[in-house]
Amino acid sequence: MDKERFERGLAARKSVLGAEYVEKALANADDFNREFQEQLTEFCWGSCWGNETLDRRQRSLLNLGMIAALNRMVEWEIHFRGAIKNGITREELKAILLQISVYCGMPTGVECFRIAQKVFAEIDAVK
């Protein structure tokens, strides 16, 4: 493992997804999936998100579309929250979800809007 790339990935992962979420994922790693968590942190977050050619807003935009197309809604919600942390506005998120609905299908759009409403309700309840 490249320790520098891992640390860069760990910092990016915590910044986008939240330190609590990431620390829990790493703490819950066992002998079976620990290597996967390390690879995920090093390569996905260290190599990809750590590359500064695209900023985090751009990466969030891409991820929302790709993860929706793959219909991975648990991961989509995590990255939707990350997109908010990365400064994507509600108006921009609505436009993204409308485009997801057209290109990924209305059932996917329905699920994405459902998740978005739940996340916004949680955020608004804290304010």
Walk me through what this model shows:
The structure is a single chain. The chain folds into two domains: 1-53, no CATH class; 54-127, Up-down Bundle (AhpD-like), CATH 1.20.1290. With 127 residues, it is mostly helical. Helix 4 packs antiparallel against helix 5 (73-85), helix 4 (56-69) runs parallel beside helix 6 (90-104) and helix 6 packs antiparallel against helix 7. Helices cover 80% and strands 0% of the residues. It has seven helices and no strands.
What descriptive keywords fit this protein?
127 residues, mainly alpha, AhpD-like, 2 domains, 80% helix, 4-carboxymuconolactone decarboxylase, peroxiredoxin activity, CMD-like
Count of discrete domains? 2
* CATH architecture verdict of the largest domain: Up-down Bundle
Looking at CATH, the homologous superfamily of the largest domain is: AhpD-like
Strand content: under 5%
User: How large is the radius of gyration?
Assistant: 15 Å
Describe the largest sheet: none
Assembly status: single chain
- Can you identify the CATH class of the largest domain? Mainly Alpha
Parts with pLDDT < 50 across at least 5 consecutive residues: none
Helix content range of the residues, please?
over 70%
The chain-level mean pLDDT equals: 96
| Amino- and carboxy-terminal Cα gap | 41 Å
Structural class by helix and strand composition: mainly alpha
